[in-house]
Amino acid sequence: PFDVLVVGGGPAGSSAAIYAARKGIRTGIVAERFGGQVQDTLGIENFITTTYTEGPKLVANMEEHVREYEVDIMNSMRAKSLTKNDLFELELENGATLKSKTVVISTGARWRNIGVPGEAEYKNKGVAYCPHCDGPIFAGKDVAVIGGGNSGVEAAIDLAGIVNHVTVIEYAAELKADSVLQDRLKSLPNVTVLTNAKTEEIYGSDKVEGLRYLDLDSGDAKEITLAGVFVQIGLVPNTEWLQGTVEMNKFGEIIVDSHGTSSIPGVFAAGDCTNSAYKQIIISMGSGATASLGAFDHLIRN
Ligand code: FAD
Required cofactors, per record (predicted)? Predict the structure, then answer.
């Protein structure tokens, strides 16, 4: 059996695997797709020590670093369930079962897509999901934020300080964000809020040029000229396969303590699949290290 079995091969899982392997204990990493969300990222400018890198390059660096150690990398394999007998048993979609004394879950998250024409086509060409990551690309330009919940309104406030103008587009009749955020938003001179607005299409040529929406009050089709569209309708943790095992919050994020411990002793979690306050590469790597050290601590005490 493994001493530490890491589930997920993004920044959190890679970091957890390296920290475990450096303790000289048997370490495995199971990943549906090694690299995770970083594989889908174009430019990365906030990974400290590296002024600019690109997702696939950072993933190659991550994999090279993991391969420096005796880590059993099982790529293209999806975990299906986690149970405990004497040891933890991780069942995979392919029918295999892996056994381990401790488990670090780092299965990440995915942005909820709006699913309109143009969204997939213009991803990384004006369609963005992360204001902390991609905001500065749109400095001085006009952008829209789709979604008037907390994440959408926070994104709009953040972007308003960088871009020329922000249009917030909300499908419902009212914004759903906390009132302090709505007040802050309303105080900004370069923000327009559209409610009862149903986004229908993101259009452009080689990059985004605008957005078409249906004004549900008047029934009229309207359009706005834009350089960027931030889709902020939710981040969904990849934890469906753990329903009924570890404790999660109402968003489906695994609840962890300061040592990365979940509600099950011996099961740790890190990165975007947890209730961490912010979701970033550098934060995931830090929490992956924490969870792995937590697992090591657990092993030497039990
Ligand atoms: P992920 O990267 O999501 O990795 C999850 C891993 O788990 C993957 O290997 C996945 O295949 C695997 N997995 C999922 N389910 C299962 C399962 N059932 N069984 C086995 N394996 C499974 N952050 C920044 O700091 N800077 C940026 O510039 C930046 N830009 C971004 C741009 C885009 C387009 C996106 C989508 C995100 C961006 N982020 C950025 C956020 C950053 O990518 C995430 O915070 C980070 O990747 C989270 O790491 P993670 O390891 O927790 O999860």
Answer: FAD
Exactly one of 40, 72, 133, 142 is catalytic; which is it?
A: 133
- The confidence band for 40, taking pLDDT boundaries of 50, 70 and 90, is confident
- Atom in ligand 1 nearest the alpha carbon of residue 11: 51
Among 199, 231, 263, the domain-final residue is 231
Does an H or E element contain 65, and which?
Answer: helix 55-67
ipTM attached to this prediction: 0.99
State the CATH number of the domain containing residue 215: 3.50.50.60
Q: Is residue 163 part of a domain?
A: yes
Query: 36 and 79 in one domain?
Result: yes
Counting atoms of ligand 1 from 1, which one is nearest the CA of 241?
A: 18
**31 and 70: one domain?**
yes
Between helix 55-67 and helix 11-21 the angle, nearest 10°, is: 20
